[in-house]
TrEMBL record:
Transmembrane stretches, start-end: 47-66, 78-95, 101-120, 132-150, 156-176, 188-210
Lineage: Bacteria, Pseudomonadati, Pseudomonadota, Alphaproteobacteria, Sphingomonadales
Pfam families, per database record: TauE (PF01925)
One GO term describing the cellular component: plasma membrane
Similarity annotation: Belongs to the 4-toluene sulfonate uptake permease (TSUP) (TC 2.A.102) family.
Membrane-related topology note: Multi-pass membrane protein
Principal subcellular localisation of the protein: membrane
InterPro entries named in the record: TM_pro_TauE-like (IPR002781), TSUP (IPR052017)
Protein name as it appears in the record: Probable membrane transporter protein
Species this chain originates from: Sphingomonas xinjiangensis
Organism domain of life: Bacteria
Subcellular location: Cell membrane
Entries under PANTHER family matching the protein: MEMBRANE TRANSPORTER PROTEIN YFCA-RELATED, TRANSMEMBRANE PROTEIN YFCA
Length: 259
């Protein structure tokens, strides 16, 4: 798929903003994925390219936590494997679904994720007792991995919520291990989509560089100013981009509903 330099630059700018917001409040994929779709990139290629750029940001965050000793690899090696396999399956299933159905489904999923980010409760800092058995937790994490391979935005928040609410981890430990699990799911989904030839490499790498730069600026801003008010801004921007998708007369959802 041929892309103009102007379009690549515009999407890289979105990735920069998304990386900045992601460092402050998470959920940067709620901006990059609808922007890719709004630019006319087919759903599977949009998800594949978004996964390439997000893998770089998640990998950097994961390594930062790992270097400081916050990741328990021995305890989380089996969960990471379950997440890896779930994501690979999700990416495989993604490619077997009709593209027109995906084009109609994506805006609905984006709206659901935006509402989740807006309404999700705050989480505590202290470790608690686990509320879910080991097998049930592994199945849940594998299901989140499947979601990441199939779609993606919000995965890190889902992992963090599950580890805090159900595995009993405190927020900092949950975030550290969520990055580890999210990196495993990103790599699995990305590998499947690379093998299938769905990644737009030039665009994905340009967005990755911009995302890393945005994450760095966001991290410094978070340490200096905090991240208040960022999550509502993220939701508004995401819904605006999703509305642009739905505004297209050729959107399959509008066609099916007769509008």
């Amino acid at each position: 798929m041929a892309l103009s330099l102007e379009l690549i630059a515009a999407l890289a700018a979105v990735a920069f903003v998304a990386g900045f917001i992601d460092a402050l409040a998470g959920g940067g994929g709620l901006l990059t994925l609808p922007a890719l779709l709004a630019a006319g990139i087919p759903p599977v290629s949009a998800i594949a390219t978004n996964k390439l750029q997000s893998s770089c940001g998640t990998g950097g965050a994961f390594l930062a936590f790992a270097r400081k000793g916050h990741v328990d690899f021995r305890r989380f090696r089996v969960p990471a494997l379950c997440v890896f396999l779930g994501s690979a399956l999700g990416a495989y299933v993604l490619q077997s679904i009709d593209s027109s159905f995906l084009s109609a489904l994506m805006p609905l999923l984006l709206v659901a994720m935006a509402l989740y980010f807006l309404l999700a409760p705050r989480m505590g800092e202290e470790d608690r007792h686990a509320r879910l058995g080991k097998v049930a937790l592994l199945l849940l994490l594998a299901a989140i991995g499947f979601y990441d391979g199939f779609f993606g935005p919000g995965t890190g928040s889902f992992f963090t919520t599950a580890l805090v609410a159900l595995a009993g981890l405190g927020l900092v430990r949950a975030i550290a291990h969520a990055k580890f699990l999210n990196f495993a799911s990103n790599i699995a989904g990305l590998l499947v989509l690379i093998v299938s030839g769905k990644v737009l490499w030039v665009l994905g790498l340009a967005m990755a560089v911009a995302s890393v730069a945005g994450n760095q600026l966001g991290a410094h801003s978070a340490m200096r100013f905090g991240g208040r008010g960022v999550r509502p801004l993220l939701v508004v921007m995401s819904l605006a981009l999703t509305a642009k998708l739905l505004a297209s007369p050729t959107n399959p959802l509008r066609v099916w509903l007769g509008y």
